[in-house]
Amino acid sequence: MEVAPSMLQAMIVRTADRIAARCEELCALDWAIGDGDHGTNMKRGWNAVGATAADIAAMPTGDALSAIGRTLVMTVGGASGPLYGSFFLAAGAAVKQGLRLPEDLVDVFAAGVQSVGARGRSRAGEKTMLDVLVPVLDTLRAGMGQPGLTAKVKGVARTSAELTAAMVATKGRAAYLGPRSVGHVDPGARSSCLIVEAICDCLEGRA
Amino acid sequence: MSGNVGIVIVSHSFDVAKGAADMVRHMVGEEVRVAFCGGNAEGGLGTDVSLILNAIGSIWSPKGLAIMVDLGGAETNSEMAVEMLPVEKRSSVVICNAPIVEGAVMAAAEAAGGGSLERVRAAAEELSAR
């Protein structure tokens, strides 16, 4: 089974809108512990994805995910381009390898998460987007097929992003600050949360 | 000379990248091909995979290319750019763990002498040895 083009397009548009709406918030988080461009970089990238949403959504799901990844790689700039790009490229490749949706969603998402870890040479606990993506993956894995999963996933994503405030950054630009990075939510964790929320909203029929 | 290893400089800043490239040219003249890129699509600070791919393509050498980077995103985006090259070209490009200006000059000096890609990389990375 493929993801319906109308659903995929809704997910892309909602994600692009959400990222654009929170551009300033993401930049403010990044100013605190980085170079302040995460919001504008993400907005640029998702604007580019959103502008071709109809074309991307018309593709087979695996190709569509790969197309999102390629667009993010080429347009985001900053380290988050290759990181988010790798997520979608790997997820797209996983679908193309014969995995099925929604049955194999966990494996597709896991391929994306694994790719982000490899690209950033990072793991959960280092104050990065992985601190949202890994708990979301764990929640998906534990709760597939159960009622209320999207609400649970959104809750985990929000809580996990908040929890990065207590972490010391050891990867990315924030690592230069070391202990001074404590007290600030990681911008990549926050943007990951926004994307997860947007996709869950669509699955809940709020597109 | 395309017979030597080429140097690609990737900075978050166009001015830093251009300045580093100027220094390399001053040191080694035309013996080594140098390409540089810096900044994002809007002309602000940042790095951009498509600009990095253009820089790589502009001085492609069968003997290889050594990429010099500054902060994290430059390295991540350079890695991504290398992975987007055709498979047969990927092993001919290395990203050096070296200070961008000094690394570029040391690498270019080695390249100008006809050094292999491994030797060029080693020359740059000697600066990072602890």
Q: What characteristic shape of chain A results from the CA principal axes?
A: globular
Q: Supply the number of helical segments of chain A.
A: 10
Kindly provide the radius of gyration of chain A, computed on alpha-carbon positions and rounded to a whole number of angstroms.
16 Å
Order of helices and strands of chain B: EHEHEHHEHH
Order of helices and strands of chain A: HHHHHHHHHH
- Count the DSSP helices of chain B: 6
Helix content of chain B: 40-55%
Report on this structure.
The complex is a heterodimer of chains A (207) and B (130). Chain A is mainly alpha-helical. Chain A has helices at 5-21, 23-33, 38-51, 53-57, 61-75, 80-96, 105-120, 130-143, 149-163, 187-203. In chain A, helix 3 packs across helix 5 (61-75) and helix 9 runs antiparallel to helix 10. The longest helix of chain A has 17 residues, at 5-21. Chain A is globular. Chain A starts with a helix and ends with a helix. The mean pLDDT of chain A is 94. With 130 residues, chain B is of the alpha/beta class. Helix content of chain B is 48%, strand content 15%. Chain B has six helices and four strands, in the order E-H-E-H-E-H-H-E-H-H. Chain B has helices at 14-28, 49-58, 72-83, 87-90, 100-112, 117-125; strands spanning 6-11, 34-38, 65-69, 93-96. Chain B has a four-stranded parallel sheet with strand order 2-1-3-4, with helices on both faces. In chain B, helix 2 packs across helix 3 and helix 5 (100-112) packs antiparallel against helix 6. The longest helix of chain B is centred in the first third of the chain and has 15 residues, at 14-28. Chain B is globular and about 40 Å long. The model of chain B has no long low-confidence stretch (mean pLDDT 93).
Task: Describe what is shown at a glance.
Chain A is an all-alpha fold and 207 residues long. Chain A contains 10 helices and no strands.
Secondary structure layout:
The complex is a heterodimer of chains A (207) and B (130).
Chain A: H1 5-21, H2 23-33, H3 38-51, H4 53-57, H5 61-75, H6 80-96, H7 105-120, H8 130-143, H9 149-163, H10 187-203
Helix pairs in contact in A: 1-3, 1-10, 2-3, 2-10, 3-5, 5-6, 6-7, 7-8, 8-9, 8-10, 9-10
Chain B: E1 6-11, H1 14-28, E2 34-38, H2 49-58, E3 65-69, H3 72-83, H4 87-90, E4 93-96, H5 100-112, H6 117-125
Helix pairs in contact in B: 1-5, 2-3, 5-6
